[in-house]
């Protein structure tokens, strides 16, 4: 384990996101992947009147508590995408992805990334950060080519794109922290881990 990490055991990541695990490992935080199994739609329904950022944070808290283990720090994460008052979810099919891209084309949407830390069944920290992304006007031939290039990855990310990959070609401008765009508000998380004594100062 990293010499910066002071806990006896790795952080538990309550997510199957490979990019979140890589971000943590690259930042010197060893992560044990243990995906949560919550009913996300039920959590979203309970938070229906909340802001997209609060929904992302609420989902993250639910995931962290679902995997909470005695003495271990558990990180839950989630992300929402909103265009005005409309919230998007992961596309269910290639055609669903195409429809989402058509709605986002030429517009600015907001990604809200929530994170929460739990220990011993209690949330010890929760936060959300936002980024604004402006998609360029997308032609139908480009969308077809993009969907071919992205493949099944279209179905694994809210909005139908992964910014760290070929999805970067969809955008004209972004405002916000790179890690937030990828689904993890890393810098406030690292500061909290230092405050908790899990990371060296």
From TrEMBL:
Subcellular location: Cytoplasm
Membrane spanning residue stretches: none
Pfam families, per the entry: Maf
UniProt enzyme class: hydrolase
Keyword RNA-binding: no
SUPFAM superfamilies: ITPase-like
Catalytic reaction equation(s): a 2'-deoxyribonucleoside 5'-triphosphate + H2O = a 2'-deoxyribonucleoside 5'-phosphate + diphosphate + H(+); a ribonucleoside 5'-triphosphate + H2O = a ribonucleoside 5'-phosphate + diphosphate + H(+)
Main location: cytoplasm
Keyword entries, A-Z: Cytoplasm, Hydrolase, Nucleotide metabolism
Cofactors: a divalent metal cation
The protein's Enzyme Commission number: 3.6.1.9
Catalytic residues as annotated in Swiss-Prot or TrEMBL: 78 (proton acceptor)
Function according to Swiss-Prot or TrEMBL: Nucleoside triphosphate pyrophosphatase. May have a dual role in cell division arrest and in preventing the incorporation of modified nucleotides into cellular nucleic acids.
Family: Belongs to the Maf family.
Protein name in UniProt: Nucleoside triphosphate pyrophosphatase
